[in-house]
Every structure is written in structure tokens, then in C-alpha cells.
Amino acid sequence: MRNPAPVATGLYEKRRGVFPARIDGTFRRLKWAIMAITLAIYYGAPWLRWDRGPYAPDQAILVDLAHRRFYMFAIEIWPQEFYFVAGLLIMAGIGLFLVTSAVGRAWCGYACPQTVWTDLFQHVDRFIDGDRNAQLRLHQAPWTASKVARRLLKWSIYLVIAFWTGGAWIMYFADAPTLVREFWSGQAAPVAYGSVAVLTFTTFWLGGFMREQVCIYMCPWPRIQTAMLDEKSLIVTYKDWRGETRGSLKQAAKDPGTYGDCIDCNQCVAVCPTGIDIREGPQIGCITCALCIDACDRVMAQIGRPRGLIDYATLEDAAKEKAGCPPTPHRKLIWHPRTLVYLGIWSAIGAGLLFALGTRTHIDLAVQKDRNPPFMVLSDGSVRNAWTLKLKNMERRPRPMQVALQGLPGAVMWSDAMGRDEAGRTLAMTVPADTVLPLRVYVAAPAGTAEQAFHFVLAATDAEGGGDRTETRFDAPRDDDDTPGDHERADHERGDHEREEHAR
Ligand code: SF4
Ligand code: SF4
After folding, report:
1. pLDDT computed for residue 23 by the predictor
2. Which of 48, 91, 233, 398 could be cross-linked to 60 through a Cys-Cys bond (beta carbons 3.0 to 4.6 Å apart)?
3. Pick from 43, 62, 31, 19: which is nearest to 160 by CA?
């Protein structure tokens, strides 16, 4: 028998248009609320002001790339404190795990930017073209002048939203009112125009046209989430034991006892923003927005049957319910051991960051030792090492500070601004406001001093006080290096350096 000819199938399936119907209900209202809050935060946050005094920006949330600062209300993060940002990113990641563990893919269904902007664009569709059936008719209609006009109007609105979205993004990186003036007068940096152009295009394209394809094919998060879901995770579930066999009200009336509660009205499919049929079981295309629950609850109310044919449920609870047990209240399903573990980790990181923020001082000392040469033997036999100290003053006023040696008996230090004859155990200086002040420091220890660790101690000498302390290492010649040949060569090489020092 001959093998049948292979059937050619493409790897790419053409997108079927999704025209979700308008629906009202508990979850739709929740989506409205979350959409309003998230969009208000995104568009409005750069315009919030926060008084930080005369020498700092007054924008509440600002990523100040030019001055390498991140401001969030009373918090100011310097580049050296990037661990705070890293901590926040880790919290955001664990927060997503926590939300997924507690309430399934709620992030996808309610708060993900792709979901929020797609929802916004779908409302524009309904506003311009009408509800689902009108949109379907227009989609299938030939390209008449009226259809072209409607499309141009709709895409123009998309473009305005997309441009506003891209424009809002750059406001987080510069003073918003100033940037708006510069942008429209053509004086903003080219990167500002480029960023707005890129974000306008991506918002227009991803929200206006790609929509559910981003969730189903492009975004990695649904894959990660589906790997995280287990029998205790809340998902949107069609209760087939209650709904099947499907049949219309007429069929059910003719043949009582044969049909379940699902009257096969397809309302759950019609409202779905990703165009799937939840009655086929859990699937990656379901973002758990719960609009199908609203649709089905409304149908059940109309035909006088109990709500919840489609509902949030865990697989474990669904199995129990199928066996005849009453459904477990949702609030009880949220709390299970995995959720508590995530909550514990998330809270611990948050508490750690808050503690670090609350206890950090506004001055800081970093030391960098000269590596080449590690030491020099001076003409009087004493040994000298050199460092670059960085004194950080995070306050908006100059602060008097003192650097002291702790340990290293008999050693003295001096800086580029003074001679060795003025050397002592401490150095005093004023660090300008909001500055990292570099300071070259030379430390000389008596002849015979061995290699050892010691500390530089920084202290603010004003009423506010505070300080920092950093350990470093003093290098000196070792006894086993002390051969005459080495010594001579070292003396010869070091002579030039010494002469420079004495000249200084
Ligand atoms: S909305 Fe409810 S009754 Fe209608 S098809 Fe969907 S599951 Fe069945
Ligand atoms: S199946 Fe229901 S919950 Fe899932 S995406 Fe569609 S409407 Fe939302």
C-alpha cells in the first residue's frame, strides 16, 4: 500500500481577529479600577513634586542620568548604592511569584502593561466601530470610503495614545515641565525624540495590532507561570461536570435531564480578549482576566441557575467539587505554604532594604591603594604607601570632616595640599555639598614597620556627626626581600620618587 502524500502545513498560523464584546460585572469593574490606577500612576507620576531644597530636583520620581541619581520621594539613591535598586528588582520578581502563587495569572489579567494598553485600545475600537458584532461586520466589509475614514480615525486615536505613552516615559528621566517645553521647541536631546519615537511605535503596534499574540507567542512570562502553577493555584475553570452536556434551553426543555447548565450561548468566548474558549480546559492563552466569569454569571442569572459555572478554582478544589463537596471559599484557597514562603522571602528583603535605608549614613569613605609601587623606602628609612580616598557627602550642604589613622603605630599622613612636615594622624577638610571628593593621601610609617592592616576612619565634625571606617593594608619590605642587591636596586629606583616627594 502506498503512503499517503504528506500534507503541507505552514509553521505560521494566520491571526484570527479577536473582537471582544462589551461586558459588565464584578471582574470587569475590577479591571476598570486597576486600569485607571495604573494609567494614572504611569502618566501622572512624573508631574508629582517633592521639595528637596534649593540644590536638588523637585520631581518626586526621577532617574537623573546626568547626575547619576535616582530619586523616589524622600529616597535618593546614588550609583554606589545600586544594591537598593537591585533589591527592589528582586522584590518585584518575587512579588510576581507571590501573586502567581496566591491568585494565579492575576498580573497578566489585570496589571501587565500589554493587558492594560490592549484593553484601552479595545475600548477605542468599541467607541469608534461599535460592539463585537458591528466590529465583525466592518472587518468583513469591503474597503469603502466610510471604512477607510473609520480606520484612519481609529488609528489616529491609537497614535495619540501611543505618543502620549512614549512621551510620558521620557518624563521619568528629566524635569517633566522643562522637558515638555524643550521637546516642543526642538531643544530636547536627540535621545528624547528617539525614545519617544520607539515607544510610540511599540505601543501603537503591540497594543493596537499584536494584542493577544504578545501574550500567547512573544512573552516568556506565561511559560514561566504555567511552570509555576500547581493543583493549588487559582485558575479560571469551566466546571464541566456541571456544564456538560451542553445544549440550548430549547433542547433542554425537550429532553429534560440530559443537558447540563451550559446553554452553549458562547458569551464566554465572545467577551474573551484573547479569543479562546475556556470550556476546552486550562490553556496558555488564558490570561485569567475573568471576563468570561462575568459573562457566564450574567447568563446564569438570566436563566435562573446558580452562578459560578465558570469560576476561579484550584484543580484540587475542582476535583473535590466534582466529587460532590461544596466549593472552598476563595480567601481560603489563596493561603497555602508556597504563598507563605514567597511572602516571607519578599517581606524579609523588604525589611532588609528598609533597615538599610533607615540606618545608612549620608557620608561614606572608599579607599583605593596605589598598587605600583606598593611602597617606597624614604631617605630616612621610613616606609611610605599612597592611597586615593573618596569622601562622599550626600547632604545638600558642605560638611566639615576629618580622616584619621586607626592602627599602624607611629605612622603619619599628609595630602597633596600640604607638605610632609605638616603630617599628622588626622587630616581635616570640608567636603562640598552633594559631592564625592577625591583625596590623595600618603602614609609614612617608621623604619622596620611590618606589613599590616589598619583603618582609615572618616568622621563628620559638625553637630550631626556620623562617619565611616574602611580597612586597608600597609605594605612594607619583607625581611626575606632584604638582600643587598635588591636593596640597592630598590634604593636606586626609589630615589627618583623620593626626590619628587621632597620637592613636593
Ligand atoms: S457563557 Fe456559560 S452558558 Fe454560555 S457558553 Fe459559556 S459556559 Fe456555557
Ligand atoms: S478565558 Fe476567560 S479568563 Fe481566560 S482570557 Fe478569556 S475571558 Fe479571560
Report:
1. 96
2. 48
3. 43
Q: Indicate the residue type of 473.
A: R
77 membership: H or E segment, kind and range: strand 75-77
Q: How far is the CA of 304 from the centre of ligand 2 (A)?
A: 23
Tell me the ligand closest to 283's alpha carbon: 2
Q: Which amino acid residue places its CA nearest to atom 2 of ligand 1?
A: 296
Residue 330 backbone zone (phi > 0: left; psi -120 to 50: alpha; other: beta): alpha
Q: Is the peptide bond before 373 cis (omega within 30 degrees of 0)?
A: yes
Give the global pTM. Answer: 0.80
Ligand 1 within 6 A of 182 CB? no
Whether residue 404 has pLDDT greater than 60: yes
With a CB cutoff of 8 Å and minimum separation 6, the contacts of 83 are 356
What angle do helix axes 26-44 and 145-170 make, rounded to 10 degrees?
60
The answer, yes or no, to whether residue 498 has pLDDT greater than 90, is no
How far apart CA 289 and CA 30 sit, in angstroms, is 10
| CB of 270 sitting under 6 A from ligand 1 | no
Q: 3-12, 245-254, 355-364, 486-495: lowest mean pLDDT where?
A: 486-495
Q: Whose CA is nearest to atom 6 of ligand 2?
A: 272
What is the distance between the alpha carbons of residues 181 and 169, in angstroms, rounded to a whole number? 16
Whether the per-residue pLDDT at 120 is higher than 60: the answer is yes
And the C-alpha cell for 455? 583603618
Measured from the Cα of 291, ligand 2's closest atom is 7
- Using a 6 Å cutoff on CB, does residue 268 contact ligand 1? yes
Q: Which residue has the cell 511605535?
A: 201
Q: How far apart are CA 443 and CA 426, in angstroms?
A: 11
- What is the percentage of the chain residues whose pLDDT exceeds 70? 92
User: How much distance in Å is there from the Cα of 104 to the middle of ligand 2?
Assistant: 13
pLDDT in tens, 4-62: 555 555 666 677 889 999 999 999 999 999 999 999 999 999 999 999 877 789 999 99
CB-neighbour burial class of residue 88 (10 A; exposed 0-12, middle 13-18, buried 19+): middle
Domain with CATH 2.60.40.10 in the chain: 363-503
72-117 pLDDT per residue, tens: 998 888 887 888 989 999 999 999 999 998 888 999 999 999 999 9
For residue 292, the ligand 1 atom closest to its alpha carbon is 1
Q: Say whether 429 sits in a helix, a strand or coil.
A: strand
Please give the grid coordinates belonging to residue 320.
Answer: 473535590
For the domain covering 363-503, report its CATH number.
2.60.40.10
